Amino acid sequence: MEIINTLGRRKTAIARIYIKKGSGNILVNERDYKEYFPLATLQYVITQPLVLAEVEGQYDIKVNMDGGGIAGQAEALRLAISRALVKINPEYRPVLKVKGLLRRDPRMVERKKPGQPKARKRFQFSKR
After folding, report:
1. Can you give the CATH number for the domain in which 16 is found?
2. Contact 8, 76 (CB under 8 A)
């Protein structure tokens, strides 16, 4: 098997991954993913597609992360891993699709409007 690369996005985070057969190492920006994402919930989010496809510890994943915060980055990485697994074996698709892991979450931060302090918040109204 050659190296497969895919892309995942969430909010403003972008995850570019390179996946190949290996021993289960996940490196994010040259660091171990457990060091990069210290929260157990984020580590669970990242390994979720591997657990569902029952391929934990079979692939080495090298990740280039850019933009966003840690939650957005973790979800972008989850999407990239899911897409890569489907490229490797199309039989994983129904399992991942049922859990919604192949869908890019379209929610983005709403822009700030002029004449307002935030996107929807207004300055205090004064009648007199």
Report:
1. 3.30.230.10
2. yes
In a domain, 126, yes or no: no
Domain count, the chain: 1
pLDDT per position in the chain (128 positions), as tens?
Answer: 689 999 999 999 999 999 999 999 999 999 999 999 999 999 999 999 999 999 999 999 999 999 999 999 999 999 999 999 999 999 999 999 999 999 999 999 999 999 999 999 999 999 98
Residue 94 lies in a domain: yes
Q: Determine the structural domain holding residue 81 and report its residue range.
A: 4-98
pTM for this predicted structure: 0.91
Tally the C-alpha atoms within 13 A of residue 32's C-alpha that lie toward its C-beta: 5
21 is a domain residue: yes
d(CA 96, CA 48): 9
